[in-house]
From TrEMBL:
One of its GO terms (cellular component) is endoplasmic reticulum. Keywords: NADP, Oxidoreductase. One of its GO terms (molecular function) is acylglycerone-phosphate reductase (NADP+) activity. GO terms for biological process: phosphatidic acid biosynthetic process; triglyceride catabolic process. This is Arabinanase/levansucrase/invertase superfamily protein. Belongs to the short-chain dehydrogenases/reductases (SDR) family. It comes from Favolaschia claudopus.
Length: 289
């Protein structure tokens, strides 16, 4: 039996992709670890793992994707067993304060990049006879996490995309799995941390936001190694789940979303991020006018 292959986007050190690459290699797969800049893959390369090959790949550029596809095809006889769409970007800003250009750039990575990858790599996945597409989603796409509306929306779009993709590709023996990721130790939040501007509607609670929102997902977060072990084990099963919930707070999130309805999170997050406090401040201000 030929060695199974996997391509993973977003494998820079400190992130989920970096750990996934090592775990797949440990399971005996041939790993194509990608990042926008090959120098970002230097740490993985220094591990000297025989079955791992770094590839420069920018999911926002179709020519870069096509070049990576052709390179992989030339090495595997035109096949790929697993595609892991992990590359992503966060953005934490109140909905009324977002920079649309920055939001568009984030969507270009988080959702349009996935769509490009799927289009270009599906023929290789079909050729494998048992292809898998693994989309790294987030509980942020399920729950209304304050000041993350744009990022939450990108992940919700990814979940919906994966649901339909699962049906469309089933006739071609391709299974689609969406990972609903809870808190995992990662560097994704460090790239797009924001503070509330003095001109914002939420300026009165800016200090609370800075304390509670920045890096909140890292508090009590699951280790990337444990996360990678669980995710890889799930993706290698004969039949994979449609959604796989993993990471800190993923179970409570599933329970609230499943049994408490659309407003199940409202009180929790309103209290956590002092939105109820802001409401009281505005009411008091109105009385004093």
């Amino acid at each position: 039996m030929s060695q199974r292959t996997v391509l993973i986007t977003g494998c820079t050190p400190g992130g989920i992709g970096y750990e996934l690459a090592q775990e797949y290699a440990a399971k005996g797969l041939r790993v194509f670890a990608t990042a926008r800049r090959t120098e970002a893959l230097g740490e993985l390369t220094s591990l000297h793992i025989p079955c791992m090959e770094p590839i420069e790949l920018d999911v926002t550029k179709i020519q870069s994707i096509k070049a990576a596809r052709d390179h992989v095809a030339s090495l595997t006889g035109g096949k790929l067993d697993i595609l892991v769409n992990n590359a992503g970007q966060s953005y934490s800003v109140p909905a009324t304060d977002v920079d649309i250009e920055e939001v568009q750039a984030m969507f270009d990575i988080n959702i349009f990049g996935v769509m490009r990858m799927v289009q270009e790599f599906t023929p290789l996945l079909i050729a494998s006879g048992d292809g898998r597409i693994v989309n790294i989603g987030s509980i942020a796409g399920v729950m209304p996490y304050p000041f993350g509306s744009a990022y939450n929306a990108s992940k919700a779009a990814l979940h919906s995309y994966g649901n339909t993709l699962r049906l469309e590709l089933a006739p071609f023996n391709i299974q689609v799995l969406t990972i609903i990721t809870g808190g995992v130790k990662s560097n994704i939040s460090s790239h797009r941390s924001r503070l509330i501007k003095p001109s914002s509607l939420y300026a009165p609670i800016a200090e609370i936001f800075a304390q509670r929102r920045a890096g909140r997902s890292q508090v009590g977060a699951m280790s990337t190694k444990a996360y990678a072990q669980s995710v890889v084990a799930q993706t290698l099963k004969h039949r994979v789940k449609a959604w796989f919930w993993i990471g800190s707070f993923s179970l409570p999130c599933w329970i609230i979303d499943t049994f408490f309805g659309r407003r199940g999170f409202d009180w929790l997050f309103s209290w956590r991020f002092a939105l109820h406090h802001l409401k009281n401040l505005l009411r008091l201000e109105k009385k004093q006018m």
